[in-house]
Prior knowledge:
Elements: H1 6-9, H2 31-40, H3 43-72, H4 75-119, H5 122-130, H6 135-142, H7 144-181, H8 185-200
Amino acid sequence: MSLRFAPALRHIALASTAAALLWAAPAHADKKDLVQKAINSQQQSFDDLARALSEAPARQMGAFSRQVIMQTVPADKQEATFKQIDAELKKYVEGALPAAKASANKAGKAVLAETLDKQFTETELRELVGILESPVLKKYQGLMPQLTGELEQKIATDARPALTPKVQASEAAIKKILDTASGGKFSEMMKQAKAAHDAAQPAPTAPAASAKK
C-alpha cells in the first residue's frame, strides 16, 4: 500500500487561518521579522497538514480492512475484529503524528519562508501581517495553489523515511489480525489475487535471433 499524501493534503487550506494575521506589526520590524511573524501565525495550518499526512494511510488501511472483514470474517467475529483494527490504526496515528509535525515545521516552514521572502517586499509583508482584507492578502491567497503543492512535496519527502516503516509495521499487524480472524482466508485471498495479477502480465518477449551470414 503506497503512501498517498496529496489527496488529503489538498483539503488543508492555509488561507483559512488568515484571520490570525490581523495584528499590527511594529514599524521598525525588518523583513525577516515580518516573514517570521507571518509563519508563526500559520502554526495551526502546519499542525493540520501534519495530522492529514498521518491520517491518510490510516484511512486507506481502515477502508481496506473493513472490506476484507466483511468478505472473509465470520459475522460473530466481525465486531471484535473491527475493534482490533481501530486500535492498531489509532496506535499508528499516535506514533506517526510527532514525525509528521516535525517535518511540517521544518520543511513546511522553510517553503513558506522562502515564498514570502521572494514574492513580497517588506512593505507588502507589513500590510499582510496587519490587514486582513487587502490586495496584498489576495496576492498571498493567489499563491496558495502553488505553495500548497510545494508544501505537499517537501513535507511528504521529508516525512516518508520516518513514516514508511510505521505504515509497514501497521499493515503487517493488520494483516495478521485479518488472517487470524478469517481463519487463514485472508492469506489465501491475497495469494489468489497475486496469482491473478501475475497471470495477467504479458509474457517476456524473447530476444530476436541474429541473422546468419
